[in-house]
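@channel sequence for tomorrow's demo:
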Amino acid sequence: MRAEPLSTVVARLGECPLWCERTGTLWWVDVLEPALWSHDAATGACTRHPVEARRIGSLALREGGGLVLACDNGLFAYDPATGRQTLLVDPEPGAVGHRKNDGRADAAGNFWIGTLRETDYAPVGVLYRVAPDLSVTMAAQELAIPNSLAFDPERGRMYFADTRAYTIWACDYDAESGTLGERRTFATTDAPARPDGSCIDAEGHLWNAEYAGGRLVRYSPSGDISGVVDLPVSHPTCCCFGGPDLDRLYVTSAIEPLSAEQRRAEPLAGNVLVLDAGVRGRPEFRVAF
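structure tokens (generated this afternoon):
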């Protein structure tokens, strides 16, 4: 599998690629700028959408159209046509130095979002579930960098990770009732590679981007490694399936931690990469608010 750059756009910390099958658009964010980016598959055009925030950690598709942006100061509805940004709720108001990180919608239209303290990445982050009525439930605590959120309704399972703990967990999960079971270790990584963002393919295998590991790892539902894709960047951050047949795998990456010498050695760092994974993905779930 050969990864190619999607465009010439370079992100300081690219994250959360998301394919909208309704519009044929790939969305992703640059956490540190902050910026929201889109790629029109029909024309190949990339567009930068300014965001009113200090940081943007992730985004989700809305069932009624548009996006939800997970910014440091709350969750916002965003209209791509007008650029209008409207506050919905802040799961963690007044948390100084905190920002939102990885987020994802589940099958019932809830939005899951992790928070972190970026001044020191101490284990004070929290994983929240935001329901369609915008009520907020705390689901996990004492996390340094919550990440790798993914849902497998066929197996009644949710995945999440703490990047600093080198661990991906699996939990039994019923989206309709919001019932979350005890976490159990699904997979671990070896330093320096850390588990970052994930997605699930049509066969129920979890694909994880190994930050500082320079690769994607495909895990079977039992947690065994079923495939590895080496990448031309050392800091991939997240992945998603897209394209008209959901058979393209998009991978965001980061340039921010690299030295000048490392950047010269990794000319594609910070780019969105695209490759043929040999399997298909699933349409992304959408939030119901």
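heads up for whoever presents: The mean pLDDT is 97.
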